[in-house]
Write a structure and sequence with these properties.
With about 120 residues, this protein is of the alpha+beta class. It contains three helices and two strands. The protein has helices at about 25-30, 35-50, 105-110, and strands at about 80-85, 100-105. A two-stranded antiparallel sheet has the order 1-2. This is HNH endonuclease. Keywords: Endonuclease, Hydrolase, Nuclease. Pfam families: HNH (PF01844).
């Protein structure tokens, strides 16, 4: 049996401590330097894109909301900024900055793995 560090456990794997709070809640509420790098890196990247695009979705042009965190949550606000690959990874796109843009969660979901429609 392998031992998984608490920051890599899924929410249903996280055990509660004696005071009733979960280890995941402690990680998300902890100072930024204590958060797992994968959560902090994603939030930093989408924040940079958000500022570069002046808070506007590259797909529809409307205002986006800046995400509070990138924790293990499954439900996102439809107007929240997410990272989108202009050319989807499944179609040969890369993770390079030229291929990454910020888009509403809803626009990103609707675009799926297609190329953006030219207007």
């Amino acid at each position: 049996m392998s031992i998984v560090p608490p920051q890599y456990k899924k929410p249903h794997d996280v055990t509660s401590s004696t005071d009733g709070s979960s280890e995941m809640a402690k990680l998300v509420d902890s100072p930024r330097s204590k958060r797992p790098k994968r959560l902090t890196r994603g939030l930093e990247r989408v924040t940079k894109l958000f500022k570069k695009q002046e808070g506007k979705c590259y797909l529809c042009g409307a205002e986006m909301k800046l995400p509070i965190d990138f924790s293990e949550r499954n439900v996102r606000d439809p107007l929240e900024a997410t990272i989108d690959h202009v050319i989807p990874r499944s179609l040969g796109g890369s993770n390079k900055k030229e291929n990454i843009k910020a888009a509403h969660a809803e626009c990103n979901k609707r675009k799926r793995n297609t190329l953006p429609q030219s207007t």
